[in-house]
Design a protein that fits this description.
Layout: E1 9-13, H1 18-29, E2 33-38, H2 41-45, E3 53-57, H3 63-76, E4 83-86, H4 101-128, E5 132-139, H5 150-170, E6 175-182, E7 185-186, H6 188-197, H7 203-213, E8 222-223, H8 224-235, E9 246-249
Parallel strand pairs: 1-2, 1-4, 2-3, 4-5, 5-6, 6-9, 7-8
Helix pairs in contact: 1-8, 3-4, 4-5
Bound molecules: NADPH dihydro-nicotinamide-adenine-dinucleotide phosphate (NDP).
Residues 13-20, 37-40, 43, 59-61, 87-91, 110, 137, 139, 182, 184-185, 187-189 line the site of NADPH dihydro-nicotinamide-adenine-dinucleotide phosphate.
Amino acid sequence: MDLGLADRTYVVTGGSSGVGLATVRALLDEGARVATCGRDAERLRRIGAHERLFTDVCDVRDADAVRDFVTASADALGGRIDGLVNNAGQSRMKRLDETTPDDWRDELELKFAGVLNPLQAARGHLRASDAASVVNVNAVLAKQPEPRLITTSAARAGILNLSKSLATELAPDGIRVNSVCLGLIDTGQWTRRHATADSGLSYADWQAELAADRGVALGRLGRADEVAYAVVSLLSPRASYITGTGIDVCGGIGRGIL
Ligand code: NDP
Protein backbone atom coordinates (compact mmCIF):
# COMPACT_ATOMS: atom_id res chain seq x y z
CA MET A 1 0.00 0.00 0.00
CA ASP A 2 1.28 3.48 -0.85
CA LEU A 3 1.11 5.47 2.40
CA GLY A 4 1.08 8.78 0.51
CA LEU A 5 4.05 10.22 2.41
CA ALA A 6 6.36 10.85 -0.55
CA ASP A 7 7.28 14.48 -1.16
CA ARG A 8 5.63 15.56 2.06
CA THR A 9 7.67 17.09 4.91
CA TYR A 10 7.75 15.80 8.50
CA VAL A 11 9.45 17.13 11.62
CA VAL A 12 10.58 14.48 14.13
CA THR A 13 12.05 15.75 17.40
CA GLY A 14 14.81 13.66 19.00
CA GLY A 15 15.72 11.81 15.82
CA SER A 16 19.37 11.06 16.62
CA SER A 17 18.61 7.86 18.52
CA GLY A 18 16.10 5.11 19.23
CA VAL A 19 12.47 5.59 18.25
CA GLY A 20 13.10 9.00 16.67
CA LEU A 21 15.92 7.69 14.50
CA ALA A 22 13.86 4.69 13.37
CA THR A 23 11.01 7.06 12.48
CA VAL A 24 13.32 9.33 10.50
CA ARG A 25 14.61 6.33 8.56
CA ALA A 26 11.11 4.95 7.92
CA LEU A 27 9.93 8.32 6.59
CA LEU A 28 12.97 8.67 4.32
CA ASP A 29 12.31 5.14 3.02
CA GLU A 30 8.76 6.26 2.16
CA GLY A 31 10.13 9.14 0.06
CA ALA A 32 9.28 11.88 2.58
CA ARG A 33 11.43 14.91 3.47
CA VAL A 34 12.41 14.88 7.14
CA ALA A 35 13.76 17.39 9.65
CA THR A 36 15.03 16.33 13.03
CA CYS A 37 16.76 17.79 16.06
CA GLY A 38 18.52 16.83 19.27
CA ARG A 39 20.76 18.57 21.76
CA ASP A 40 24.01 16.87 20.71
CA ALA A 41 25.44 17.85 17.31
CA GLU A 42 27.72 14.82 17.10
CA ARG A 43 24.83 12.36 17.57
CA LEU A 44 22.89 14.19 14.84
CA ARG A 45 25.90 14.02 12.53
CA ARG A 46 26.07 10.25 13.01
CA ILE A 47 22.62 9.86 11.37
CA GLY A 48 24.46 10.44 8.09
CA ALA A 49 23.65 12.74 5.18
CA HIS A 50 20.59 12.40 2.97
CA GLU A 51 19.33 14.83 0.33
CA ARG A 52 15.85 14.84 1.93
CA LEU A 53 17.08 15.17 5.54
CA PHE A 54 17.63 18.39 7.52
CA THR A 55 19.12 18.29 11.03
CA ASP A 56 19.87 20.97 13.57
CA VAL A 57 20.73 21.25 17.24
CA CYS A 58 17.70 22.27 19.26
CA ASP A 59 16.44 21.66 22.80
CA VAL A 60 12.66 21.22 22.67
CA ARG A 61 12.32 23.02 26.02
CA ASP A 62 13.53 26.28 24.41
CA ALA A 63 10.58 27.84 22.55
CA ASP A 64 12.70 30.34 20.59
CA ALA A 65 15.14 27.65 19.48
CA VAL A 66 12.26 25.39 18.43
CA ARG A 67 10.69 28.20 16.40
CA ASP A 68 14.03 28.80 14.62
CA PHE A 69 14.48 25.05 14.00
CA VAL A 70 10.98 24.64 12.54
CA THR A 71 11.37 27.72 10.32
CA ALA A 72 14.74 26.47 9.07
CA SER A 73 13.25 23.00 8.47
CA ALA A 74 10.46 24.34 6.27
CA ASP A 75 12.89 26.60 4.41
CA ALA A 76 15.23 23.67 3.73
CA LEU A 77 12.56 21.13 2.79
CA GLY A 78 10.10 22.60 0.30
CA GLY A 79 8.44 25.35 2.36
CA ARG A 80 5.90 23.05 3.98
CA ILE A 81 5.35 20.83 7.02
CA ASP A 82 2.72 18.10 6.84
CA GLY A 83 3.33 16.39 10.12
CA LEU A 84 5.05 16.50 13.45
CA VAL A 85 6.32 13.70 15.68
CA ASN A 86 6.85 14.90 19.26
CA ASN A 87 9.31 12.25 20.35
CA ALA A 88 12.26 13.96 22.10
CA GLY A 89 12.66 13.12 25.74
CA GLN A 90 13.53 10.56 28.34
CA SER A 91 12.08 9.14 31.52
CA ARG A 92 13.06 9.79 35.11
CA MET A 93 13.57 6.66 37.27
CA LYS A 94 12.64 7.94 40.74
CA ARG A 95 10.23 7.09 43.51
CA LEU A 96 8.35 9.73 45.56
CA ASP A 97 10.93 9.99 48.34
CA GLU A 98 13.80 10.47 45.87
CA THR A 99 11.99 13.17 43.90
CA THR A 100 12.84 16.83 44.52
CA PRO A 101 10.70 19.84 43.59
CA ASP A 102 13.18 20.50 40.75
CA ASP A 103 12.61 16.94 39.44
CA TRP A 104 8.87 17.59 39.29
CA ARG A 105 9.33 20.95 37.53
CA ASP A 106 11.93 19.63 35.07
CA GLU A 107 9.89 16.57 34.16
CA LEU A 108 6.66 18.47 33.60
CA GLU A 109 8.54 21.12 31.60
CA LEU A 110 10.20 18.56 29.34
CA LYS A 111 7.02 16.61 28.64
CA PHE A 112 4.69 19.59 28.06
CA ALA A 113 7.19 21.86 26.27
CA GLY A 114 8.18 18.88 24.13
CA VAL A 115 4.67 18.82 22.68
CA LEU A 116 3.60 22.46 22.86
CA ASN A 117 6.73 24.22 21.56
CA PRO A 118 6.99 22.24 18.28
CA LEU A 119 3.23 22.35 17.78
CA GLN A 120 3.02 26.14 18.19
CA ALA A 121 6.01 26.60 15.89
CA ALA A 122 4.63 24.33 13.16
CA ARG A 123 0.94 25.20 13.49
CA GLY A 124 0.76 27.61 10.55
CA HIS A 125 2.39 25.07 8.23
CA LEU A 126 0.18 22.26 9.50
CA ARG A 127 -2.92 24.35 8.90
CA ALA A 128 -1.82 24.85 5.29
CA SER A 129 -1.33 21.10 4.69
CA ASP A 130 -4.10 19.01 3.15
CA ALA A 131 -3.18 16.05 5.42
CA ALA A 132 -1.71 17.39 8.65
CA SER A 133 -0.96 14.89 11.40
CA VAL A 134 0.68 15.16 14.82
CA VAL A 135 1.89 12.07 16.68
CA ASN A 136 2.88 12.35 20.33
CA VAL A 137 5.23 9.60 21.48
CA ASN A 138 3.91 8.66 24.90
CA ALA A 139 4.08 5.65 27.22
CA VAL A 140 1.64 3.10 28.62
CA LEU A 141 2.71 4.64 31.95
CA ALA A 142 0.11 7.30 31.14
CA LYS A 143 -2.60 4.72 31.80
CA GLN A 144 -0.73 2.26 34.01
CA PRO A 145 1.54 4.30 36.36
CA GLU A 146 4.62 2.85 38.02
CA PRO A 147 5.78 4.12 41.45
CA ARG A 148 9.43 3.84 40.38
CA LEU A 149 8.67 6.37 37.59
CA ILE A 150 6.39 8.66 39.55
CA THR A 151 7.06 12.00 37.81
CA THR A 152 7.17 10.46 34.34
CA SER A 153 3.93 8.53 34.90
CA ALA A 154 2.08 11.66 36.04
CA ALA A 155 3.47 13.78 33.21
CA ARG A 156 2.62 11.09 30.66
CA ALA A 157 -1.00 11.00 31.88
CA GLY A 158 -1.16 14.77 31.41
CA ILE A 159 0.19 14.51 27.88
CA LEU A 160 -2.38 11.87 26.96
CA ASN A 161 -5.10 14.17 28.26
CA LEU A 162 -3.56 17.13 26.37
CA SER A 163 -3.43 15.10 23.13
CA LYS A 164 -7.18 14.56 23.32
CA SER A 165 -7.82 18.28 23.85
CA LEU A 166 -5.52 19.18 20.97
CA ALA A 167 -7.28 16.70 18.68
CA THR A 168 -10.59 18.42 19.39
CA GLU A 169 -9.27 21.96 19.16
CA LEU A 170 -7.25 21.44 15.99
CA ALA A 171 -9.77 19.31 14.08
CA PRO A 172 -11.44 22.35 12.47
CA ASP A 173 -8.01 23.24 11.03
CA GLY A 174 -7.72 19.76 9.53
CA ILE A 175 -4.94 18.75 11.93
CA ARG A 176 -5.20 15.22 13.38
CA VAL A 177 -3.53 14.48 16.74
CA ASN A 178 -2.82 10.97 18.00
CA SER A 179 -0.47 9.16 20.38
CA VAL A 180 1.61 6.05 20.42
CA CYS A 181 1.91 4.61 23.92
CA LEU A 182 5.10 2.63 24.33
CA GLY A 183 5.94 -0.22 26.66
CA LEU A 184 9.59 -1.24 26.90
CA ILE A 185 11.43 -0.45 23.67
CA ASP A 186 15.05 -1.47 23.19
CA THR A 187 16.82 1.89 22.72
CA GLY A 188 19.62 3.92 24.25
CA GLN A 189 17.48 4.43 27.37
CA TRP A 190 17.74 0.71 28.21
CA THR A 191 21.36 0.17 27.15
CA ARG A 192 22.29 3.04 29.48
CA ARG A 193 20.28 1.48 32.33
CA HIS A 194 21.88 -1.96 31.74
CA ALA A 195 25.31 -0.34 31.89
CA THR A 196 24.59 1.34 35.23
CA ALA A 197 22.60 -1.59 36.73
CA ASP A 198 25.79 -3.68 37.19
CA SER A 199 23.62 -6.82 37.32
CA GLY A 200 26.29 -9.19 36.03
CA LEU A 201 23.82 -10.30 33.34
CA SER A 202 24.39 -10.05 29.59
CA TYR A 203 22.20 -7.43 27.90
CA ALA A 204 20.04 -10.20 26.36
CA ASP A 205 19.50 -11.95 29.72
CA TRP A 206 18.89 -8.64 31.49
CA GLN A 207 16.25 -7.72 28.87
CA ALA A 208 14.51 -11.10 29.23
CA GLU A 209 14.39 -10.69 33.01
CA LEU A 210 13.06 -7.15 32.62
CA ALA A 211 10.31 -8.25 30.22
CA ALA A 212 9.23 -11.03 32.59
CA ASP A 213 9.30 -8.69 35.61
CA ARG A 214 7.10 -6.10 33.85
CA GLY A 215 4.64 -8.66 32.48
CA VAL A 216 5.31 -8.22 28.76
CA ALA A 217 3.10 -10.84 27.11
CA LEU A 218 5.40 -11.22 24.10
CA GLY A 219 8.33 -11.84 26.48
CA ARG A 220 10.75 -9.37 24.96
CA LEU A 221 11.43 -5.66 24.55
CA GLY A 222 10.11 -4.01 21.40
CA ARG A 223 12.30 -2.68 18.60
CA ALA A 224 12.39 0.96 17.58
CA ASP A 225 11.36 0.05 14.02
CA GLU A 226 8.21 -1.61 15.41
CA VAL A 227 7.26 1.76 16.93
CA ALA A 228 8.20 3.66 13.77
CA TYR A 229 5.72 1.55 11.81
CA ALA A 230 2.86 2.72 14.06
CA VAL A 231 4.02 6.35 13.93
CA VAL A 232 4.31 6.40 10.15
CA SER A 233 0.87 4.80 9.82
CA LEU A 234 -0.68 7.58 11.91
CA LEU A 235 1.15 10.24 9.90
CA SER A 236 -0.14 8.82 6.63
CA PRO A 237 -3.00 10.61 4.84
CA ARG A 238 -4.52 7.11 4.68
CA ALA A 239 -5.27 7.48 8.43
CA SER A 240 -7.50 10.47 7.63
CA TYR A 241 -10.34 9.46 9.99
CA ILE A 242 -8.13 8.68 12.99
CA THR A 243 -7.75 11.46 15.55
CA GLY A 244 -7.88 11.87 19.32
CA THR A 245 -6.76 8.32 19.96
CA GLY A 246 -3.65 6.25 20.43
CA ILE A 247 -1.99 2.97 19.61
CA ASP A 248 -0.31 0.94 22.34
CA VAL A 249 2.99 -0.48 21.10
CA CYS A 250 3.85 -2.49 24.17
CA GLY A 251 3.92 -6.24 23.47
CA GLY A 252 0.81 -6.73 25.61
CA ILE A 253 2.33 -5.34 28.82
CA GLY A 254 0.36 -5.63 32.05
CA ARG A 255 -2.80 -7.54 32.87
CA GLY A 256 -5.40 -4.77 32.63
CA ILE A 257 -7.29 -3.51 29.63
CA LEU A 258 -5.28 -0.48 28.54
P1 NDP B 1 16.64 7.69 23.21
O1 NDP B 1 17.35 8.13 24.44
O2 NDP B 1 17.19 6.55 22.41
O3 NDP B 1 16.46 8.96 22.23
C1 NDP B 1 15.98 10.18 22.72
C2 NDP B 1 16.15 11.22 21.64
O4 NDP B 1 15.60 12.47 22.11
C3 NDP B 1 17.61 11.49 21.30
O5 NDP B 1 17.70 11.84 19.94
C4 NDP B 1 17.94 12.70 22.18
O6 NDP B 1 19.04 13.39 21.64
C5 NDP B 1 16.63 13.48 22.08
N1 NDP B 1 16.36 14.40 23.17
C6 NDP B 1 16.27 14.11 24.50
N2 NDP B 1 15.98 15.23 25.19
C7 NDP B 1 15.86 16.24 24.28
C8 NDP B 1 15.55 17.62 24.37
N3 NDP B 1 15.31 18.22 25.54
N4 NDP B 1 15.50 18.34 23.23
C9 NDP B 1 15.74 17.76 22.02
N5 NDP B 1 16.04 16.45 21.88
C10 NDP B 1 16.10 15.70 23.00
O7 NDP B 1 15.16 7.43 23.69
P2 NDP B 1 13.95 6.53 23.09
O8 NDP B 1 14.04 6.43 21.63
O9 NDP B 1 13.84 5.33 23.91
O10 NDP B 1 12.71 7.46 23.50
C11 NDP B 1 11.96 8.23 22.58
C12 NDP B 1 10.71 8.72 23.30
O11 NDP B 1 9.92 7.58 23.70
C13 NDP B 1 11.02 9.50 24.57
O12 NDP B 1 10.10 10.56 24.70
C14 NDP B 1 10.82 8.47 25.66
O13 NDP B 1 10.54 9.02 26.91
C15 NDP B 1 9.63 7.68 25.08
N6 NDP B 1 9.49 6.34 25.64
C16 NDP B 1 10.47 5.40 25.49
C17 NDP B 1 10.33 4.13 26.03
C18 NDP B 1 11.36 3.06 25.86
O14 NDP B 1 11.19 1.96 26.46
N7 NDP B 1 12.41 3.26 25.07
C19 NDP B 1 9.12 3.78 26.81
C20 NDP B 1 8.14 4.83 26.89
C21 NDP B 1 8.33 6.07 26.33
P3 NDP B 1 20.01 14.30 22.61
O15 NDP B 1 20.27 13.49 23.84
O16 NDP B 1 21.23 14.54 21.77
O17 NDP B 1 19.23 15.54 22.87
